[in-house]
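Supplementary Methods. Inverse-folding protocol.

Structures were first reduced to a discrete structure-token string of length 522. This string, shown here, constituted the complete conditioning input.
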């Protein structure tokens, strides 16, 4: 079993000391109600930690009937205890006597003068977690460190360190992939780049992972909340057979894709988890990360969504690795979906153009072939405009690209054999469909529109690829005059649904995916 643990910052209450029992009891009850499976009591947060107080705290926490870890982290290893080593280790011995299931003891203090760690190990090795923490970065040789710890017969060995880039997390995962040892190991990379190690500890059978009860209550960088672990990342369903998917981007913390895809996995009964992967911008960082995933077959990585700024890197990766590339993705010059096939082959797709076409045809009640000859205007000259232009021209639309920088519109139009103009020509556009492929109108700048209201007509179909907010100012104004409107949520859901089907081979629950996205945009 991999425990989902929460660390309680045991502090002196601002009111009378007698209320300490109530504060700790309330927190422990809240942790158990949230579905926590183990509690760590961080005694170093106490201003005046005394043996009697430790015994009282253990007594209160034991009422949850959850396994307890007592920790008194010294300031020299990222904690808050500033007393002597003798005082600190006496508190840990007190915690053991009071009934803590485990005490966390720093590896670095084993050989310090006056250390009682050997006494702890001789007395209760089966209740000791030997730990190492590095808040600066990944240690040079974690495996060797854990091997040295193993000579002391502690019940659990722990290595936690700051991940300065996402590939740093591979070392923690590598520790856990040995099925025979993983249950007695904790390998965690801290920070946003280490998120995958916190979730995948369950897949690999690590002893525990940490979460926080609520946002901002974590005791280490990068901790997710218990609710996120359970409701977004499917903690209770994870096992060694779980398939891993995710989204690569930078930044990535804002992405709604994990919530959407994981909810779809649950709905369809698919044993998978979808994670956000923060990958640095340069090409070599992208290649190193994807190579690392492919080399670790035991991770069972099947599919990767790719977003800004890595869509060209993904295209390059497929080309360089000799993989299969969807023809229109090559023409667009961007890949937003990688599928890792059995046997190691990589396939690249662009689901953005398909998502846009599906949104348009569904709203207009027609098939793709019926778009043939339809005059369409695209506002914008970036990556989204490129994908939409590829899809619409491939469907036979008569496309004109409008952009502030006319030279950029001209270059894009030349690639897709269509017309172009500057934004000053929007007033004379002859179109049945107009598409906003810019970020104008996106949250938080919601009071602007890429198309002056006076240029809107009732006979237009207006498609805004912006999905936050779902109803942009452009769509509100178009709807007010009776024009057909198509929101960006439709494109997002359609492209995500196509990715889901590529990853799983199952039909995507599009209605559910849209409702989850709407809920997370509120």
């Amino acid at each position: 079993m991999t425990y989902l643990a929460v660390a309680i910052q045991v502090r002196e209450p601002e009111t009378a000391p007698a209320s300490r029992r109530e504060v700790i009891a309330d927190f422990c009850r809240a942790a158990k109600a949230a579905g926590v499976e183990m509690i760590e009591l961080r005694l170093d947060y106490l201003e005046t930690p005394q043996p009697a107080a430790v015994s009282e705290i253990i007594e209160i926490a034991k009422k949850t009937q959850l396994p307890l870890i007592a920790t008194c982290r010294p300031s020299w290893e990222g904690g808050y205890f500033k007393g002597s080593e003798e005082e600190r280790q006496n508190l840990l011995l007190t915690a053991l006597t009071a009934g803590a299931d485990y005490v966390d003891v720093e590896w670095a203090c084993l050989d310090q003068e006056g250390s009682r760690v050997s006494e702890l190990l001789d007395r209760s090795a089966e209740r000791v977690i030997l730990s190492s923490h590095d808040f600066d970065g990944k240690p040079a040789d974690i495996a060797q460190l854990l091997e040295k710890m193993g000579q002391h017969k502690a019940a659990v060995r722990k290595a936690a360190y700051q991940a300065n880039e996402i590939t740093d997390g591979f070392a923690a995962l590598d520790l856990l992939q040995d099925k025979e040892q993983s249950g007695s190991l904790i390998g965690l990379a801290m920070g946003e780049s280490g998120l995958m190690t916190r979730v995948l500890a369950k897949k690999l059978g690590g002893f525990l992972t940490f979460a926080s009860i609520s946002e901002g209550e974590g005791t280490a960088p990068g901790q997710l909340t218990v609710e996120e672990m359970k409701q977004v990342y499917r903690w209770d369903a994870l096992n060694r057979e779980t398939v891993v998917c995710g989204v690569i981007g930078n930044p990535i913390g804002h992405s709604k894709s994990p919530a959407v895809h994981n909810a779809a996995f649950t709905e369809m009964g698919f044993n998978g988890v979808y994670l956000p992967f923060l990958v640095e911008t340069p090409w070599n960082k992208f290649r190193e990360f994807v190579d690392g995933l492919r080399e670790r077959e035991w991770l069972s990585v099947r599919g990767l969504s790719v977003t800004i700024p890595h869509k060209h890197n993904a295209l390059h990766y497929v080309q360089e690795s000799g993989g299969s590339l969807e023809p229109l993705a090559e023409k667009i010059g961007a890949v937003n979906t990688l599928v890792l096939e059995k046997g190691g082959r990589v396939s690249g797709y662009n689901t953005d153009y398909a998502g846009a076409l599906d949104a348009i045809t569904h709203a207009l009640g027609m098939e793709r072939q019926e778009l043939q000859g339809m005059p369409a205007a695209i506002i914008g000259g970036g990556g989204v405009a490129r994908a939409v232009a590829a899809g619409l021209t491939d469907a036979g639309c008569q496309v004109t690209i409008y952009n502030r920088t006319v030279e950029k519109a001209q270059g894009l139009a030349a690639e897709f054999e269509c017309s172009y103009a500057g934004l000053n020509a929007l007033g004379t556009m002859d179109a049945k469909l107009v598409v906003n492929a810019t970020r104008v109108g996106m949250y938080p700048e919601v009071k602007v529109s890429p198309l002056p209201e006076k240029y809107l007509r009732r006979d237009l179909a207006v498609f805004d690829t912006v999905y936050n907010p779902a109803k942009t100012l452009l769509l509100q104004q178009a709807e007010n005059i009776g024009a057909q409107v198509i929101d960006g949520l439709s494109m997002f859901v359609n492209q995500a649904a196509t990715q889901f089907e590529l990853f799983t081979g199952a039909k995507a629950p599009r209605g559910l995916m849209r409702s989850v996205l709407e809920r997370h945009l509120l």
